[in-house]
């Protein structure tokens, strides 16, 4: 175990006590105010939220479901006025629609969807772009903000970059292979230095059903991505989600989407140069010589860590000059050696095994089947790569590996078999250059309860019974170089605690010390945080509150935590649980965490 001296931590806040109950908890001396709930109006004409009378049209004018990534794009450099961008990853039908769950023989059953329900679900996906302003110390939504916008599963988008227009992307609705309807399962994301919003498409396989026509060339491709999966019933009402009718549609998802938030009519771009996989996030940073480097996780057991380096350089004086930087560059996949070195292997057509003999006729094929290309290059299969955060102060990069209970064969970078709690890998890019193709790595922390010897957790000895965590998912390195980690999957049943936001020391004697700053209500996952540039506000997202613990008659399946079920954040009998974004500020003002 790493040693940490008393007082060596960068964080001096009083820790929250770990536990589980109906509501959220923030460290003493801080406020956590609800800013936006599922269903809240975003425009002057948005209908009032009424969960019993919801329509697709109303939902498209309201804040969507299951807020995940939160970004803040300052207006004129302000930390008190800006555009908030929020991904709406997916929908929980059993928590959204009254009366659709019945219980037979103790088993909960969700009624089949009708078209209206499906269209509400599609309108609740995507993202929100909304102006916000701090007034009298409290954040407010500016409902008549000129650039407020909802993006949904039906917003028109353009495919750009090396795979755009390829035959494998053409459908009966789009003979050009360049025009797509909407985005789905946008998990984490990013904001670029030129102020665009990046939405990463993660588990797109869940939206497709039906069978590929006999002998279709995509069979092997789709198998590698788990398509179809049929979690959603959209394909019963919209042919494009049915493989038997539109065999190429799944190739149009699994990309990184870039949105210009300065123009509410801009067409979002799916940037194919960044590869096609289950993109967790797209945190990014400018390298020493001006290239922009995107760190990309593919969240599946035994999948890979990637980065993309733009061919061009960032121009801080000319926003327009940066708007297509993401169409040209090199996509790399990581190989972690057991001796603590690592290499970034380029996914470039014609190099190594990425040739016609292996089915890659062009760079488009390499990108459409990114996973297969990375398999052939011998990349290191990881324990579910989630968010990846670069630290501009040190040239280090933090990789959240959430868990992998199927791992039987540990290696140095994934050192535990049956890895239930995950770990964090710290990469040091050669020369502190984010565009480098080599680096070194070490494990910052193996997660889990340090008091249980078999778990093998390696938090510092200063970490308290409240401060340890499992299942790291999102991360942020703030402008002070402080690491914040959000978790997903800490089960109250197994550990007596919910997910939360943790402050983690990375330097000096306190390295490996973790402290609990905020925790979510029962059933929820923690997403974010996103600090304002001055570090006085942290925006966090509480996703799927009450999942597995709800009891609102007609809305949910029976709770297995009946005494702890919740209707957060309204706590009203006629309101369901509502995923929400919160703004955390210090009472009396000042920097968060100290
Ligand atoms: Fe949507 Fe990888 O979490
Ligand atoms: Ca999530
Ligand atoms: Ca995630
Ligand atoms: Ca996760």
From TrEMBL:
Top-level lineage group: Bacteria
UniProt xrefs under InterPro entries: PhoX, TAT_signal
Pfam families in the record: PhoX
Identification of the protein by name: PhoX family phosphatase
């Amino acid at each position: 175990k790493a040693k940490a001296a008393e007082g060596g931590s960068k964080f001096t806040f009083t820790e929250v006590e770990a536990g589980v109950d109906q509501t959220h908890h923030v460290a003493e001396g801080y406020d956590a105010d609800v800013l936006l709930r599922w269903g809240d109006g975003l425009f002057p004409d948005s209908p009032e939220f009424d969960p019993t009378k919801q329509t697709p049209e109303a939902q498209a004018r309201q804040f969507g479901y299951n807020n995940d990534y939160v970004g803040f794009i300052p207006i004129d450099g302000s930390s008190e006025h800006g555009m908030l961008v929020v991904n709406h990853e997916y929908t929980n039908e059993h928590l959204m629609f009254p009366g659709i769950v019945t219980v037979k023989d103790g088993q909960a059953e969700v009624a089949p969807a009708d078209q209206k329900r499906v269209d509400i679900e599609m309108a609740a996906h995507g993202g929100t772009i909304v102006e916000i302003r701090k007034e009298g110390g409290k954040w407010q939504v500016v409902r008549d903000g000129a650039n407020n916008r909802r993006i949904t599963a039906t917003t028109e988008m353009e495919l750009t970059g090396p795979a755009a227009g390829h035959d494998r992307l053409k459908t009966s609705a789009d003979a050009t292979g360049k025009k797509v309807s909407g985005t789905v399962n946008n998990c984490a994301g990013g904001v670029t230095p030129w102020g665009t919003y990046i939405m990463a498409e993660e588990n797109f396989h869940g939206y497709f059903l039906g069978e590929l026509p006999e002998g279709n060339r995509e069979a092997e491709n789709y198998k590698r991505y788990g398509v179809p999966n049929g979690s959603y019933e959209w394909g019963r009402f919209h042919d494009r989600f049915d493989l038997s009718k539109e065999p190429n549609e799944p190739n149009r998802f699994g990309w990184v989407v870039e949105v210009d938030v300065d123009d509410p009519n801009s067409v979002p771009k799916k940037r194919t140069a960044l590869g096609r996989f289950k993109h967790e996030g797209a945190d990014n940073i400018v390298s020493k010589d001006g290239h922009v480097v995107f760190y990309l996780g593919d969240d599946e057991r035994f999948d890979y860590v990637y980065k993309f380096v733009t061919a061009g350089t960032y121009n801080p004086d000319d926003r327009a000059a940066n708007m297509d930087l993401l169409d040209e560059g090199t996509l790399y996949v990581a190989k972690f050696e057991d001796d603590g070195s690592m290499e970034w292997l380029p996914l470039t057509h014609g190099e190594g095994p990425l040739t016609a003999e292996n089915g890659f006729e062009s760079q488009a094929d390499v990108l459409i089947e990114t996973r297969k290309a990375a398999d052939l290059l011998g990349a290191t299969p990881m324990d579910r790569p989630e968010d990846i955060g670069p630290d501009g102060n040190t040239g280090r990069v933090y990789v959240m590996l959430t868990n992998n209970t199927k791992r039987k064969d540990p290696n140095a970078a994934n050192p535990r078999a049956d890895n239930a709690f995950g770990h964090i890998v710290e990469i040091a890019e050669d020369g502190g250059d984010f565009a480098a193709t080599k680096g070194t790595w070490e494990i910052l922390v193996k997660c889990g309860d340090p008091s249980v010897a078999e778990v093998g957790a390696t938090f510092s000895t200063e970490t308290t019974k409240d401060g340890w965590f499992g299942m790291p998912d999102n991360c942020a390195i703030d402008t002070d170089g402080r690491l914040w980690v959000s978790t997903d999957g800490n089960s109250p049943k197994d550990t007596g605690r919910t997910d939360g936001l943790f402050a983690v020391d990375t330097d000096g004697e306190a390295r490996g010390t973790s402290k609990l700053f905020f925790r979510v209500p029962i059933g929820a996952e923690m997403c974010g945080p996103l600090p304002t540039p001055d570090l006085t506000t942290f925006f966090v997202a509480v996703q799927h509150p009450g999942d597995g613990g709800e009891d609102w008659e007609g809305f949910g399946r029976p709770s297995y935590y009946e005494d702890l079920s919740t209707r957060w954040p309204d706590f009203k009998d006629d309101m369901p649980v509502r995923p929400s974004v919160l703004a955390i500020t210090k009472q009396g003002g000042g920097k968060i965490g100290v």
